[in-house]
Each structure stands twice: as structure tokens, then as C-alpha cells.
Amino acid sequence: MTGDWTAGKIVRQLRRLGTRRNVDGMARFGIHAAKVFGVSKPKLDTLARKIGKDHDLALALWTTGIHDAKILAGMIDDPAKLTAAQMESWVTDFDNWDTCDGTCCHLFVFAEPAWIKAVAWTRRKEEFQKRAGFALAAYLAYRDKTAKDSQFLDFLKIIEREAEDERNFVRKAVNWALRNIGKRNLNLNRAAIATSERLRQRESRVARWIAGDALRELHSEAVQARFGRKEQSMAAKKGMRVRRVKTEDVQRLTELAGQLGYPTSVKEMKKRLRDVLNDQDAACFVAEDDRRRVLGWIHVSVTPLIEVERRAEVNGLIVDETLRSRGAGALLLRAGERWACGKKCKGTSVRSNVIREKAHGFYLRNGYEHYKTQKAFRKVL
Fold first, then answer.
1. How far does Cα 128 stand from its chain's mean position?
2. How many structural domains is the chain composed of?
3. How many CA atoms lie within 13 A of 300 on its CB side?
């Protein structure tokens, strides 16, 4: 044990630090425990720093069954000594969301079996054990820097599976995990948004709430701006940047339109570009390298529809066929998506010719899902 600390001495200290006012306040926030002193979190933090890491002392504190002592146990235990058996033993003692979340936050998330337990616990029947699975995933989304996107993509499937559990502390944890996964990086943001969109189509009131609340944050300007800053930094390292189209880009736009399969004259392109620049519900961006050479362009516009919610459509995206696989396409796509978020769109869609298999793979890699195959008709007026 660290210094002269003992479980008995710590319990006496906790009793002195607790207040009835805090106990009442905890109850108002849904934290109920058979034995609780009401020690504030700042005081627990101070005490944990004084004690330091001590595995044996943590085990002794947990066995007291006192709420404050159990929270402290999670704070001072050594994750390197934490076993799967101990995690199983402790999770069965979770009797409120505070013990659940606190233990997952301070201890379980750093343990080697964290991923295995997160997945396994999502199938538990007990409310706080099941919550622990999703709370652990929520913490892993920003604590585990080595986890692969595929692990979180698999967990999104679990979220879809369990999104109709009506119990308050479960549904909130499901929502929490969905939001945190969607804030980890841009690829997972797109995937979490796609998951939310599917959940929003269900008849379940709980699933629709989980989806709606998550979409508000995942689409928010703050979240999208953070991803934008990261992308701009990455683009700068590659010697690229994305900017709004200018009238002097018309020659290059014309050349690239031909590569896309839509040849036209510079005169006609100039007219089209003027219309786009004057349209508040449309935008065109270009990607250029450090020599100010235009690598590609994207045209996106808002499509207000009666049958579905407001969304944006990628009308055209092209990168010079001799300059691909450098990341310019993804940068252009993100620029269009950020613009769409600023226009309060709930999503973006794109139509791609059935023969453009490489383009299909590009969109799938960037978080889009293939949801429909259709025939397109047109008529000359």
C-alpha cells in the first residue's frame, strides 16, 4: 500500500468529507446508493492524488460497498494489474450510472480487456452492466489512440442492434457512444451519421431520439470545423489547399469537365460558372497544389425536396486523371460536406454512373452508403 493509507483510514476520511447536501444533490441526478457519504468529485480527485496508485488498496475499498469508496477505488487502481475477472466482478456491483461511468473512465478504459468487455457487456440484461458496455466504448473513442476505425465501425453495428432499449440509462449510453465514435475522425463521423440516418427511419421512439440527438452534434459547425482544421493541416503538409472557385479558373474547369465525360466550350462553361457563382444554394470548390495548379473541382448544391429532409447533392466531382491518389478528391468532398452542413442540410447524396466502379469505391471509403440503384431519364426542352 502507498504510505500509511489503509481502507479504514480512507473510509473515515471520506465520511468527514461528505455532506448531506451532496447526497441529496446526487439523488436529484439519479445517483442512488445504499451507502453513500456525498463526497464531491474535486475532493475525491485531491484524495486520489495523495494516495497514488495502489491495486490492493483499491480492492479493499471496493469491498466496503460505500459509493464514494468505490469511485475512489477506480481512481487509484493500477490498470496494468486489472484482470478480466476483476472487471467482471466489479461490473456486477454497478448500481448507478456514477459508479459505472466513473470506473469505466478512470480504470476500465485503460485495461487490456477493455474492448472485449465493451462488446460483451452490450448484451447484458442488467441496466448498468449493459450501460457499462456503451460507456466503455464512448471512452475508448477518445482514449484509445491505437484502435483501428474497423473496431468502431463494428461497434456501430452493435449500436444499431441495441438502439431500441427503452431504459433511460441504456439509451443515453448508446447515444453517447454513437456521438463519441462520430467525433473521433472524419471517416467515423460519416459512418456515425449514416448509422444515425438509418436509426431515424425506424418506428421506435427510442431509436429516433438516439439518432436525432446524435445528428445534431455530429452535423454541428463546431464538430465539422474541427475536422476541417485537421484536414487543412494535412492538406498543407501535402502541398494542397481547397478554395472557392474563381472566374479565372474557367479554362481548367472546362478541361476537367471533359475528363468527367461532359465536354463543353470555355464560353459555355463561363456562362454556367456565372450562374453557379450567383446561386446562394450552390457552391464550387477547387483543389490546387503548391504551384497553384488546379487539381480538381467539386460542384455541390442544396436540393430542397418534399419527400425527404433538406439535403445537398454532389453534382460533379473530378480530379485530373494524371494527378489522382493524392487526397485531393477527399479534400474536395469534405469541403462540399462542410458547406452543406452550413446550409443546415441533414446529409449529402451523389449519383454515380454504374460503370464508374473506382468512383463507387471512393465514395464508400468516404462514408457514403449505396442505398439505391435507379434509371435516369431526361427530356430536351
1. 23
2. 2
3. 26
